[in-house]
Specification:
Among the domains are: about 270 residues, no CATH class; about 40 residues; about 45 residues, no CATH class. The chain is mainly α. The chain contains 23 helices and six strands.
């Protein structure tokens, strides 16, 4: 055991620590129940948990069914007080699973390009702490599903180009079927990505391997039709049937592409101030939270209780109150603006560096394709808002249709191939410095340091009690929190039978057959052990989308088969 621990590489250890940290950080400080458009998309969850009818929306269902599976697994914890928290944890756990699947695909892809395992682990540690990935991982939207599957699409395309084995193209069929039916923007961006990476080869296959090419297309169509029909039967809509709200039934002026008011940008970098500027919006929202939906959301714990450590006055470092006094005007010490402008600076550095590499002779054309991907995403969104094709989708008061979130899975691919080149060139001591710098930038942008108070501390403690990592988290929370009276972790039945529920309300529980009135905690515990749920929050997994579930399972299966095949061939080569 000791020897195994000694063999753990620094880079892999950092990756697993950062993954655990980022997963727990988001659960403790952000409630996904209040993530963007949750009130709309929760209709999918209600449909799959026997709480509502057809969602009548345009997006595919497999992503929301996966969340419903996680929610159903936690139904023995849900009560009227913690319902929001349990939903939030289910969303983030489902997203974490999809995120890890995406990382595995990205790992396989990077290995094709001969990057070292340790450098990939360091890159993934940075991705774990990437602000835009925080947004993707806490939001109940299928962009995380796209991140999960897109790296595998490119990987299988690359493997076909290397080995000329048509089996890899068949591997793609269930994956592409899911992507093509998940969301209109994901469909468009996936098509662009496939054409960019594989356009010439498609023509070559149809020209030189006509029969095989037509066979693959036919099989793809045969796969695509059932999943489309199942989605349509559930949602009464399709991915290209989006009906925008009234305020979005507009097209944007062409000058939105280049319109930029520097004075307005510098002096008023707040939500909706850049609604008419694609450049301003992109600069503020790529590494920041310009729309105030995540770590800047009003009621998020990342946003509350922020400590202003910089004060105006004679130079002094006060270790007792953790404050620094500087002889400058108070207006220059506002940490909120530093958070905003640091995120802008990071965006500028990324895109300037990416553009420089695109025109550099040191990068081969294939690597440059990855750097172009975010621009492809931007172009598709700009095309839609300016032309109104396939549907008008522009609110001039917000401009949120152009959020980097919508092409985040392409941005992360580009970011990965850019950053790993930097990591590859660094000595180990500088790699350590890079990771430390990224960590402190992350927690600063996310709203730290904090001014502890009872309300904040108790909210964190309550959330932590609902996490499987509660005991581990308490090691750190016990050091950093001021209020520790109720910090101990609780057994599940104590979380379920919350004492405060029995003070003022009549409580009823059900097992989907009969209903019982519950008047005290002992009766609650007895019914908990018999799998009863609170009547007002009871869920029951239903309406399983079997075709969607089969395609997703098949996608995971082909990933596993490919890995088994890859390892077998490696061992065979070593023997020979």
């Amino acid at each position: 055991m000791v020897q195994k621990l000694k063999n753990i590489k620094f880079e892999s250890l950092i990756f697993f620590i950062s993954l655990l940290f980022s997963a727990n950080f988001s659960k403790l400080f952000y409630n996904s129940y209040y993530s963007p458009d949750f009130e709309k998309y929760v209709m999918y969850i209600d449909y799959f948990t026997n709480r509502g009818g057809s969602p009548n929306l345009d997006q595919g269902v497999i992503y929301f069914y996966i969340i419903s599976l996680f929610l159903n697994n936690s139904k023995n914890l849900i009560n009227p007080n913690n319902q929001e928290l349990i939903y939030s944890n289910a969303i983030q756990n489902a997203n974490l699973l999809l995120y890890v699947i995406g990382l595995i695909g990205l790992y396989k892809l990077l290995k094709i390009y001969k990057y070292k395992k340790n450098d990939i682990y360091l890159l993934f540690s940075i991705l774990n702490l990437l602000p835009i990935m925080f947004a993707v991982r806490v939001t109940m939207k299928p962009e995380i599903l796209a991140f999960s599957l897109i790296p595998w699409v490119i990987y299988f395309l690359k493997m076909y180009l290397i080995e000329k084995d048509f089996l890899y193209l068949y591997y793609l069929i269930p994956i592409l079927s899911i992507l093509f039916t998940s969301k209109g923007s994901i469909l468009g961006l996936t098509v662009i990505l496939v054409l960019v990476f594989f356009g010439k080869e498609i023509i070559n296959i149809l020209k030189n391997h006509t029969t095989k090419g037509i066979a693959i297309i036919l099989v793809f169509i045969i796969f695509l039709v059932p999943i489309y029909m199942e989605n349509n039967s559930i949602t009464n809509s399709g991915v290209l049937s989006y009906e925008p709200p009234e305020e979005y039934k507009n097209t944007a002026p062409i000058n939105i592409i280049y319109n930029f008011n520097l004075n307005n940008f510098l002096n008023d970098p707040v939500r909706n101030s850049q609604s008419g500027s694609f450049l301003g919006l992109t600069l503020l929202d790529t590494f920041g939270d310009y729309f105030q939906l995540y770590w800047e959301y009003e009621y998020s714990l990342t946003n509350t209780s922020r400590k202003e450590i910089l004060k105006s006055g004679d130079f002094l470092i006060d270790f007792n109150y953790k404050e620094i006094f500087l002889p400058v005007n108070e207006r220059y010490l506002n940490l909120e603006y530093y958070r905003i402008y640091i995120s802008v600076l990071l965006t500028l550095i990324f895109y300037i560096y990416a553009i420089r590499k695109i025109f550099s002779k040191s990068y081969n054309n294939e690597q440059k394709i990855f750097l172009i991907l975010p621009f492809a995403g931007m172009s598709l969104l700009l095309f839609q808002v300016v032309t109104g094709i396939p549907a008008q989708n522009w609110d001039p008061s917000k401009g949120d249709t152009l959020k980097p979130f919508y092409y985040s899975f392409l941005f992360v691919l580009s970011f990965s191939f850019l950053i790993i080149e930097i990591i590859k060139s660094l000595k180990k001591k500088y790699k350590i410095f890079l990771i430390i710098s990224v960590f402190f930038l992350y927690i600063f942008i996310m709203g730290f340091p904090k001014a502890n108070n009872s309300s904040f501390d108790n909210a964190v403690i309550y959330k932590n009690q609902h996490l499987i990592t509660c005991e581990i988290n308490n090691i750190f929370l016990g050091i950093n929190l001021f209020e520790k009276e109720n910090i101990d972790c609780k057994q599940n039945y104590k979380l379920f039978c919350d004492e405060s529920l029995f003070d003022d309300y009549e409580i009823y529980m059900t097992n989907n057959i009969d209903v019982k009135k519950v008047e005290n905690i002992n009766a609650c515990k007895d019914l908990y052990e018999k799998d009863y749920q609170y009547q007002s929050t009871a869920i029951k997994l239903t309406n399983t989308p079997f075709i969607n579930l089969f395609y997703f399972s098949l996608s995971i299966l082909v990933m596993a088969i490919n890995e088994i095949k890859f390892n077998f061939n490696n061992k065979k080569r070593k023997i020979n």
